[in-house]
């Protein structure tokens, strides 16, 4: 099975077809269970009786450019950060393209303003798809 998995580096690019086809720089983290995406603002609202959120993203590190998108709430989870702090986070499910693969991904939304990468790719998204070469970066190109 391992021979069937695509090799990726410790950092790569992800593209989001349903978020303005934005390209986001991500860190691959097999220690993190869930993937996370930088969100500047998350506003809950109700649409046809269902919970939705309006999310403001800043997809480029060092840029104030914002993209706003609405999503049905997939879940709300307690997430423990690497520092041990537990927060409630909204979870969305949206398509992502990483290398040649497109699949639906669950993403928690949080501020990653002080982090080097706008996205963290966790082990749930890695499982059955990728092997990580921890010595390499941007194996899949741009």
Textual characterization of the structure:
The chain has 142 residues and is mainly β. It has one domain (2-133): Acid Proteases (Cathepsin D, subunit A, domain 1), CATH 2.40.70.10. Helices cover 3% and strands 55% of the residues. The protein is built from one helix and twelve strands; from the N terminus they run βββββββββββαβ. Strands 2-3-11-4-10-9-8 form a seven-stranded mixed β-sheet. A three-stranded antiparallel β-sheet has the order 5-6-7, with no helix packed on it. Strands 1-12 form a two-stranded parallel sheet. Strand 8 and strand 9 form a beta hairpin. The radius of gyration is 15 Å and the shape is globular. The chain starts with 5 loop residues before the first strand and ends in a 9-residue tail after the last strand.
Can you lay out the helices and strands and say which pair or pack?
Elements: E1 6-9, E2 11-16, E3 22-28, E4 35-38, E5 41-47, E6 50-57, E7 67-72, E8 75-80, E9 86-98, E10 101-110, E11 119-121, H1 123-126, E12 130-133
Parallel strand pairs: 1-12, 3-11, 4-10
Antiparallel strand pairs: 2-3, 4-11, 5-6, 6-7, 8-9, 9-10
């Amino acid at each position: 099975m391992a021979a069937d998995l695509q090799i990726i580096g410790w950092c790569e690019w992800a593209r989001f077809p349903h978020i303005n086809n934005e390209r986001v720089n991500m860190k691959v983290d097999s220690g993190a269970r869930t993937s996370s995406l930088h969100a500047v603002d998350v506003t809950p609202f109700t649409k046809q009786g269902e919970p939705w959120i309006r999310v403001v993203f800043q997809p480029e590190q060092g840029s104030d450019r914002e993209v706003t998108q609405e999503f049905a709430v997939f879940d709300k989870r307690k997430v423990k950060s690497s520092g041990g702090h537990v927060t409630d986070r909204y979870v969305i499910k949206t398509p992502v393209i990483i290398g040649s693969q497109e699949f639906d991904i669950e993403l928690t939304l949080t501020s990653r303003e002080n982090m080097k990468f706008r996205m963290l790719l966790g082990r749930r998204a890695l499982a059955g798809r990728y092997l990580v070469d921890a010595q390499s970066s941007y194996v899949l190109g741009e």
